[in-house]
Amino acid sequence: MGCTLGQGLFTAASTASAIELRQRVETSGQRSAEELRKANEDNAQLRRSVLDLSDEIEQLRDDLATLRGQNETLTHDIETMRRSRGTTQVIDERSRLSSPNQ
Q1: Helix, strand, or coil here: 101?
Q2: pLDDT tens-digit map of 45-66
Q3: Rounded distance, CA 102 to CA 98, Å?
Q4: How far apart are CA 43 and CA 38, in angstroms?
Q5: What is the DSSP secondary structure assignment for residue 25, as one 8-state letter?
Q6: 3 contacts: CB under 8 Å, gap ≥ 6
Q7: How do residues 7-60 score in pLDDT, each as one tens digit?
Q8: Which conformational region is residue 88 in: left (phi greater than 0), alpha (psi within -120 to 50 degrees), or beta?
Q9: How far from the centroid of its chain's Cα atoms is residue 93's Cα?
């Protein structure tokens, strides 16, 4: 059984088609690899950003705790001063009332 011209053309066309298909697959694979590399880079950048934000949130929490402590201290100091001033006023009033000059 010999090869006819039609069969030869079909075989040539099939071979050309297979080569073209292989090139498409390789090109597609290269694009997929490049897209995967880019996605991995983006993912790494996002992870770094999340870690940076997490660190910043932790620092803000520390700052907030410090400010709350300072606020409590100042509130306590104000109350102490008010009581002291009240005591001073009572003492002054008693002094004034008990003073013979007045």
Answers
A1: coil
A2: 999 999 999 999 999 999 999 9
A3: 8
A4: 8
A5: H
A6: 11
A7: 555 576 677 788 888 999 999 999 999 999 999 999 999 999 999 999 999 999
A8: alpha
A9: 61
Rounded-to-integer distance, Cα 21 and Cα 27, Å: 10
Distance separating alpha carbons of residues 28 and 16, to the nearest angstrom:
18
pTM score: 0.55
Q: Which residues of 20-57 are buried (b: 16+ CB within 10 A; e: fewer)?
A: eeeeeeeeeeeeeeeeeeeeeeeeeeeeeeeeeeeeee
CB 102 within 8 A of CB 96: yes
* Residue 100, amino acid: P
Alpha carbons within 13 angstroms on the beta-carbon side of residue 67 total 6
What contacts 12, CB < 8 A, 6 or more positions away?
A: none
